[in-house]
Design a protein that fits this description.
This protein is of the alpha/beta class. It has five domains: 157 residues, MutS, DNA mismatch repair protein, Chain A, domain 3 (Orthogonal Bundle), CATH 1.10.1420; 95 residues; 204 residues, P-loop containing nucleotide triphosphate hydrolases (Rossmann fold); 108 residues, no CATH class; 41 residues. The strands form five sheets. A six-stranded mixed sheet has the order 10-11-12-8-13-14, with helices on both faces. It has a five-stranded antiparallel sheet with strand order 18-17-16-15-19, with no helix packed on it. Strands 1-2-4-3 form a four-stranded antiparallel sheet. The two termini are 94 Å apart.
């Protein structure tokens, strides 16, 4: 496998890769993330690709474990980073707040991956080179408060200026209040008394008294009835306030320049933070997209082989999911034994979708995305993926469909090698069927000789025959129901597919005589070949049904075997219990016989001491066989014995009851058979044919069935109807 991967732009366009990227970008939560997703291309080297796949797979796992990855959202600081690269510039407080936010978010993520290294080893390794620091945030926090204002204690001078500003504002308010009360008492003011102009409190003076109020005129009402005047007593303080506010602004800028110069040293780290969060946003979007269609990371194999089990076309699957429709998965494989698959069969059966599914999934995988396949799937990587899908008429270049396709084939011939996957839809179309088919066959032989891997769809019989003849090529067809002629949307490897041309035409209402006439116009061998393929497909369907039936029977047999095994175990346990009971009873019988012998001996000789000695010996022998049990064990043993005794009693009662019922049933006399006579309609026991008795001789009857007669014993006949 070559390390460099090169996928042409046409392949991306043919397989609608941009649509996939648009769907993935919808899951991004940052603008930079969206932009980066839309720029995704297949990875250029294998090492980076494998890391990208593992990162997405790890992030996907975070959705189902207890260690959810923290939020990675951030406001873009691209403008701030550009300003930091320019001398003598400074950042506003809003920009400083964004830098604090992005630093905190990045540090949280880095600490998380460090803490949960066991769960996310690749994400930890991927981010381990980025520095974790709180100094940057602390420096900004000393200067800017949570409201985005420079703090009073950011410098001694700023603190003094702001204290002076507060004093001046107090003097302005008191002097203004004094003037307000004075002119109000003189009735020079309008009913509203005061207003605010240019952020200054002003008196609302009646127009007729404007010359009597000393101060600076700041404006008037629309009607001209009110003149707004700043009182003379506050003007002096206002000028002083303006001077102080100017000094405050200068000091704030000086402070911001100082902090910006400190941040400037952190500019590479901030670049890393923004790049990290953007990349995490892309990885997160890929993982969320994978989750939406139950995608996974299949096994990546070194040898050139592909086995996609239950593979879905992502765009079709998500569209059908939204519309609550079923999507049919496909299973397809490519290997060194079957490098090229030739798919045939009727239109609208799913050939093109199968082709596009393989191509798009391979593209997604080589772009670091997980794919909607069964976990047991296996994939390899290709250095080139070449496609020719659709008619691609080029009006601006005055190229016909066939001319364009020939240009494509020429491009394929230049690029095709053993590390190539080629996908061609409707191979050879656009020209005379025989001539185009012959040329397509030649191209396919070249691809075959170069050991390329590929999938093509076609209706051409010569390509189907070629696939049958070549060792490392294989036919495949999209299954159709032979009765309803409806597609099953399932790919079957190993056999070419019939186009069902005449069958589909007949189903769509084309008159039979026209179809028959059409059949006569083409070569008989062609019709026979297509008919043979159709017949083979029908046989294949029957074999599949038989196989399914055999599998079902096999499952039943296994279930029955398991059931019998369980019964066998139960019987073994019962036998063991019966054996224990038998042994216990035998021991008791033996003891009874011994005691009986001693009793008889004593009856004869009346030797009491000898009797006691023999009894004591017997007791000692029996006790030597016993195992000493605790009180709890003795109780458990008694309970077990009682339970077993109860079970035995119940079973004995059931057996006795059944025997009694059987005896009673034997007493019931059987119903006497009717006497048969000539003319009765009869039939043989358990038979269906009915005849009439012609003659009876020596417990035998001659029965006439119309077409024939037969001689039968009377006791084998049943009466159907009396004469």
């Amino acid at each position: 496998m070559q390390s460099m991967i090169d996928i042409p732009h046409k392949t991306l366009k043919d397989l609608e890769f941009s649509t996939v990227l648009n769907q993935v970008s919808d899951y991004c939560i940052t603008q930079l993330g969206k932009e980066k997703v839309l720029e995704i291309k297949p990875y250029q080297d294998k090492k980076t690709l494998l890391l990208g796949l593992r990162l997405t797979d790890e992030y996907l796992s975070s959705f189902i474990n207890n260690n959810r990855i923290p939020n990675h959202g951030f406001d873009t600081i691209s403008k701030e980073l550009k300003l930091l690269q320019i001398e003598n510039t400074y950042l506003e407080t809003s920009s400083l707040q964004k830098i604090v936010a992005i630093s905190l978010t990045s540090n949280d993520l880095l600490k998380f991956f460090e803490k949960f290294d066991e769960y996310y080893p690749n994400l930890r390794l991927f981010t381990s080179h980025i520095e974790i620091t709180s100094q940057l945030v602390n420096n900004i926090d000393e200067i800017v408060d949570r409201f985005g204002d420079v703090k009073d204690h950011a410098s001694l001078l700023l603190s003094e200026i702001r204290r002076s500003i507060n004093k001046i504002k107090g003097k302005i308010n008191s002097s203004f209040t004094s003037a307000l009360n004075n002119y109000h008492r003189l009735d020079y003011l309008d009913d509203i008394r005061e207003s605010v102009v240019d952020n200054k409190r002003v008196l609302a003076v009646k127009a007729m008294y404007r010359r009597k109020v000393k101060g600076a005129i700041m404006g008037g009402s629309k009607t001209g009835s009110i003149i707004y005047i700043e009182p003379e007593v506050t003007l002096k303080y206002s000028r002083e306030l303006n001077n102080l506010q100017y000094e405050e602004g200068e000091e704030v800028v000086r402070i911001l320049k100082n902090i910006t110069n400190i941040i400037r040293t952190y500019e590479p780290l901030l670049q890393s933070y923004q790049s990290l969060l953007t990349t995490i946003d892309v990885i997160s979007a890929k993982a969320k997209y994978a989750k939406s269609m139950s995608a996974c990371l299949p096994e990546l194999v070194e040898d050139q082989s592909m086995y996609l089990r239950d593979a879905f076309h992502p765009l079709l699957y998500l569209t059908n999911l939204e519309n609550k429709k079923k999507t049919f998965p496909q299973t397809i494989s490519l290997s060194l034994e079957h490098r090229i698959v030739v798919i045939s069969g009727p239109n609208a059966g799913g050939k093109s979708i199968t082709l596009k599914t393989v191509g798009l999934l391979q593209l997604m995988l080589q772009s670091g995305m997980l794919i909607p396949v069964h976990e047991g799937s296996k994939v390899c990587l290709f250095s080139k993926i070449l496609t020719d899908i659709g008619d691609n008429q080029s009006i601006e270049n005055h190229l016909s469909t066939y001319s364009y396709r020939l240009k494509q084939m020429n491009y394929f011939l230049k690029r095709c090698d053993k590390n190539t996957l080629f996908l061609i839809d409707e191979f050879g179309t656009g020209s005379d069927p025989e001539l185009g088919g012959a040329l397509a066959e030649t191209f396919l032989e070249v691809f075959y000789d170069r050991k390329a891997f590929g999938i093509i769809t076609t209706h051409y019989s010569n390509l189907k025959l070629l696939a049958n003849e070549k060792q490392f090529m294989i036919n495949a067809n999209m299954l159709f129901d032979e009765h309803s002629l409806e597609p099953k949307y399932r790919l079957a490897l190993g056999q070419a597919g019939s186009s069902f041309t005449f069958e589909v035409a007949q189903k769509n209402g084309i008159p039979f005589n026209l179809i028959n006439k059409s059949k006569k116009k083409i070569e008989r061998s062609k019709v026979r070949f297509d008919a043979t393929i159709a017949k083979l497909q029908k046989e294949r369907s029957k074999l599949e049904k038989t196989g399914q039936s055999l599998k079902l029977n096999e499952k039943k047999k296994i279930a029955e075997a398991d059931k019998l095994e369980a019964i066998n175990l139960k019987i073994k346990k019962k036998l063991e219990s019966y054996q224990e009971l038998y042994d216990s009873n035998q021991r008791l019988i033996y003891l009874g016989q011994k005691v009986n012998d001693l009793s008889e001996k004593y009856f004869n000789n009346k030797r009491k001491r000898e009797l006691m000695s023999e009894l004591f010996k017997l007791v000692q022998i029996e006790n030597s066989k016993r195992v000493k049990l605790t009180q709890k064990e003795r109780q458990a043993k008694k309970v077990k014995e009682k339970k077993f005794e109860k079970e035995i009693t119940q079973k004995v009662n059931i057996i006795r009851k059944n025997k009694k019922a059987a005896k009673q049933s034997l007493k019931v006399l059987p119903k006497p058979k009717p006497t048969l006579k000539v003319g009765d309609r009869v039939r043989i026991e358990d038979g269906r044919a009915i005849g009439s008795i012609d003659k009876i001789e020596k417990n035998k009857a001659i029965v006439n069935y119309g077409a024939f007669t037969t001689n039968i014993n009377l006791n084998r006949l049943e009466l159907v109807a009396d004469k």
